[in-house]
Write a structure and sequence with these properties.
This protein has 448 residues and is α/β, with parallel strands linked by helices. It is built from 17 helices and 13 strands. The strands form two sheets. An eight-stranded mixed sheet has the order 3-2-1-4-5-6-7-8, with helices on both faces. The protein has a five-stranded mixed sheet with strand order 11-10-9-12-13. GO terms for molecular function: oxidoreductase activity. One of its GO terms (cellular component) is peroxisome. Belongs to the short-chain dehydrogenases/reductases (SDR) family.
């Protein structure tokens, strides 16, 4: 019996560059399983040159005809992905929405790096990277509103490993991986899942570097099933990169050596003497995200230099289950969140919270820029952990931010890492302690 989550009835899919090759196979398979498909293709050569076609005979028209002949629903679109908003609006006008986006369109301008010119570089970046961004950006608002979306971006082995004579293409396809990771981070809480594939298939683009026998053997149909699975409700993975071809698929991950941390004041000679350690994968690690990556370094630094907490852990009476805030604290818009945090630390989950971040934190909230901060102490080091209004004598990490930004962070509308990088959340003290204190420690506030 067919799994309904592996069908696409009622779903609207846009497949860019689907007038032939991989894109055509994606469009045909999605349509065969119930999707309404926008077959997008500008009808150019693989190098982006214009071609003349009789009415109804453009590549997108021919694929639409195939779909309709098989009983499916499809519409042809000829806009360039560099104007991605036109493609998405076409889908919305034709079929009432957008649920699935496969960013497959691409061109080549193969040339050695020594001989590449500005136009050859710019054109490839514009189609692959900016095109994928513009299509995704236009679709994003619809996916956010409906709390559902599936995006698959086409990367390449060239973007992962590099390829001679393809500096422009390799750079573009590597950029697609970064775009995929960030869209995954921003979209997953809204049920928008984004993944990337590096297809291994015989197409017009691989004809430029593969033999005819190899192109004929590695059929694009052998990739389509996996890509369409990534577009389904059944797929819950996001932010992943897969190499796919010949009815095979494999997931990639980042791997980093344990590395080598040298003493403060080390010299270039010290680096040279330890060079082999930087490349020794014997005890390799696999960072999952930027926070995980940084945390590993913070932990090693703390261990190497025996960094100790600056805050003591006095034995304290438990926090009250409810707290009476001062007039200044009560006037903050985030007052209900602060009260909730105090209650959670004092409640039955307080020990579990403290176990994940056993430090003393100071949180300074400003009602407006330049205003006097309202301070809170969260002592997750004491037993039992406590929380109260007022600044601690000593702390491990201090967070300072505006009232509105604190609300956005705690309600998961603003990523805390983004807030830090944008300067909206200031941090001082022990960075290892700071990275342990995240909104996920606490249950999301039900209302303000």
């Amino acid at each position: 019996m067919s799994n309904p989550k592996l069908r696409f009835d009622g779903r609207v899919a846009v497949v860019t560059g689907s007038g032939g090759g991989l894109g055509r196979c994606y469009a045909l398979l999605l349509a065969s399983r119930g999707a309404k498909v926008v077959v997008n293709d500008v009808g150019t050569t693989v190098t982006g040159q214009s071609q003349n076609f009789a009415t109804g005979s453009r590549p997108a028209d021919l694929v639409v005809a195939e779909i309709r002949k098989a009983g499916g629903t499809a519409a042809a679109n000829y806009d360039s992905v560099t104007e991605g908003e036109k493609i998405i609006e076409f889908a919305v006008k034709q079929f009432g929405g957008i649920d699935i986006l496969i960013n497959n369109a691409g061109i080549l301008r193969d040339v050695s790096f020594r001989n590449i010119n500005e136009a050859q570089w710019r054109d490839v970046i514009d189609v692959h990277v900016n095109g994928a961004m513009r299509c995704a950006k236009a679709a994003w608002k619809y996916m956010e509103k409906q709390q559902y979306g599936r995006i698959v971006n086409a990367s390449s082995a060239s973007g992962i490993y590099g390829s001679f004579g393809q500096a422009n293409y390799s750079t573009a396809k590597a950029g697609i991986i970064g775009l995929t990771s960030t869209l995954s981070n921003e979209g997953k809480k809204r049920n928008i899942f984004t993944n990337a594939v590096a297809p291994i298939a015989g197409t017009r683009m691989t004809e430029t570097v593969w033999s005819k026998d190899l192109v004929d053997m590695m059929r694009p149909e052998y990739v389509a099933g996996f890509v369409c699975y990534l577009c389904s409700e059944a797929c819950t993975g996001t932010g992943d990169i897969y190499e796919v071809g010949a009815n095979w698929a494999g997931k990639l991950r980042w791997e980093r050596t344990a590395g080598c941390m040298l003493p403060i004041g080390h010299t270039l000679e010290d680096i040279h003497a330890n060079w082999a350690k930087y490349g020794d994968f014997t005890n390799a690690v696999h960072p999952k995200d930027t926070l995980d990556s940084y945390q590993m370094v913070f932990d090693m630094f703390e261990e190497k230099y025996k960094v100790k907490s600056t805050a003591e852990a006095p034995t304290s009476k438990a926090s009250p289950s409810s707290v009476t805030l001062s007039k200044a604290a009560s006037s903050l818009k985030c007052a209900p969140i602060l009260s909730s945090i105090v209650a959670q630390i004092a409640g039955p989950n307080g020990a579990a919270i403290a176990e994940k971040a056993s430090f003393v934190y100071r949180v300074d909230i400003l009602s407006a820029k330049g205003a006097q901060p309202v301070s809170f102490t969260l002592n997750l080091k004491s037993s039992p952990p406590t929380a109260n209004e007022g600044a601690p004598a000593k702390f491990d990490a201090c967070f300072t931010m505006l009232d509105e930004d604190f609300i956005a962070i705690m309600t998961r509308k603003l990523n805390h890492q983004v807030a830090f990088m944008q300067g909206r959340m200031k941090i001082k003290g022990n960075m290892r302690a700071a990275t342990k204190f995240t909104p996920s420690l606490f249950a999301p506030p039900s209302k303000l």
